[in-house]
Specification:
This protein has 452 residues and is mainly β. It is 1% helix and 48% strand. It contains one helix and 45 strands. Strand 35 and strand 36 form a beta hairpin.
């Protein structure tokens, strides 16, 4: 209030000016713990009115609370108390920030607020998918976990709903949907870090692929068989005994070696299904040979038990062969006959070899008779003989000599030219036949030999 007094002429006038107390400003901030980007309220209260052109300047101290070089946060025009919300400015973390309001008319420095704590943002911990992935197959799971962040609590959401009992570092996801993990500071050490979003998809496994073979899967000799499937909209991987076959990535595969084959089909989401195993045997035919122990027999001898086939366990066949093992010359009569030996292995692969046997009449070939009508002749001396006999042939060609007993069983053989001596120490007394055969079987001659 201002009073004026004036004295004119003889009248004494005087004036007196009276001023009220200077206005004051008090500042407060709420809340007193602020995170970057959060909103907070600055309020100030004045104790008296200011003139109409006054400005209120909102200042922020440095991190120590000093206003030596304050930062201007806002400038307001007004003459009354005020309260206004602000977004936290980008300031280094500190618990010593203060705010005040300074007036311009009259110039009044307000009382600063109490200390305000600008807290730092604690960095988000690392997120891991320790098992599984974001794309799962039916029945699978993915373990979502975060690194530990001391003083923080985690809240897990699934499709917008809070998952109960999940205030922990991990969650095992088994269902399709959106998982959100928020991290909150509970120890006042920092500000809420934020959240993670993980979208998990659960997809079905492909149907077990059917596999068919283009032909027999047991193959003898050399050959191949093609395995194929009708499965579509998948990728393919063929395996042999559980091992991937390089470059075998189409719907069919041609097999050329023995093995146990199966197909793995994989959907676009990485879900895989195995086919049943298909066993393929590609087996070489066995090596079969026939070497007859005897190949010349008498017509009136006992039936001939055939032998000399390799590998053992095969069977004989041919005309006049009975029960796969015995040749009946009483049915065949005289002549040369082909005998076959066949061997079949454990998976059915087989091969056959053959040999010839000759049947002649041992009782009607007189001494000196050439049954081939050839003039080639030989002599045996002495005959009858006891320990040895000398055989001489009137040709320089190599000839083959064979000795048979009365049953037509071959007892020995050798090859010679001109002459040879037969040792008879191991021959029992009896009648034997000595046969000479020329090169390429162009001729043969049979003589009787008596051993005493």
């Amino acid at each position: 209030m201002r009073l004026r007094f004036t004295l004119f002429a003889s009248v004494l006038f005087f004036s007196v000016a009276v001023f009220a107390q200077t206005p004051s400003i008090t500042t407060s901030v709420s809340p007193n713990k602020v995170c970057p980007g959060d909103s907070f309220t600055i309020s100030y209260t004045v104790s008296d009115t200011f003139v109409y052109d006054n400005l209120f300047v909102v200042q922020v101290s440095d991190s120590t609370g000093s206003f030596a070089s304050p930062m201007i946060l806002d400038t307001l025009a007004g003459q009354s108390d005020s309260s206004k919300k602000y977004l936290a400015p980008a300031l280094p973390a500190s618990a010593n920030y203060r705010f005040r309001v300074v007036a311009t008319d009259p110039a009044v420095v307000g009382v600063a607020s109490g200390a305000v704590n600008f807290r730092p943002v604690i960095a988000l911990p690392n997120l891991h998918f320790t098992t599984g992935a974001t794309s799962l197959c039916t029945g699978d799971s993915s373990r979502i976990s975060l690194d530990s962040l001391p003083g923080s609590v985690y809240t897990w959401y699934f499709n917008g709903h809070v998952l109960t009992n999940t205030h922990k570092l991990y969650y095992v996801a088994r269902d399709s949907g959106q998982y959100i993990i928020t991290i909150n500071d509970t120890a006042s050490a920092g500000c809420e870090s934020g959240s993670y979003t993980a979208n998990i998809g659960v997809f079905p496994y492909p149907t077990k692929p059917p596999v068919t073979a283009s032909g027999p899967v047991n193959i003898c000799g050399s050959g191949t068989v093609t395995l194929s499937t009708t499965a579509t909209n998948v990728t393919y991987q063929w395996q042999n005994h559980g091992n991937d076959i390089a470059s075998a990535n189409s719907s069919s595969y041609t097999v050329s070696v023995t093995g146990a084959y199966r197909l793995i089909v994989t959907s676009a989401h990485g879900c895989s299904t195995k086919s049943d195993s298909v066993k393929v045997n590609i087996h070489p035919n066995p090596v079969v040979s026939l070497t007859l122990a005897l190949d010349s027999f008498c017509l009136h001898a006992a039936p001939i038990s055939l032998s000399g086939g390799s590998p053992a366990g095969g069977y004989f066949s041919g005309n006049y062969v009975v029960n796969n093992a015995t040749f009946y010359q009483t049915s065949s009569g005289l002549g040369t006959f082909t005998v076959y030996y066949t061997y079949v292995d454990s998976i059915g692969c087989h091969d056959t070899d053959s040999g010839s046997i000759r049947i002649f009449d041992c009782t009607t070939l007189p001494s000196g008779i050439n049954d081939a009508g050839n003039s080639t002749a030989f002599t045996m001396w002495p005959n009858p003989a006891q320990q040895q006999v000398q055989v001489t042939v009137n040709t320089t060609e190599k000839v083959e000599l064979r000795i048979y007993n009365a049953l037509g069983q071959q007892m020995g053989s050798q090859t010679f030219s001109n002459a040879t001596v037969l040792q008879l120490n191991n021959y029992a007394p009896g009648v034997y036949m000595v046969e000479l055969t020329g090169p390429a079987q162009k001729w043969h001659t049979v003589r009787k030999l008596v051993v005493q």
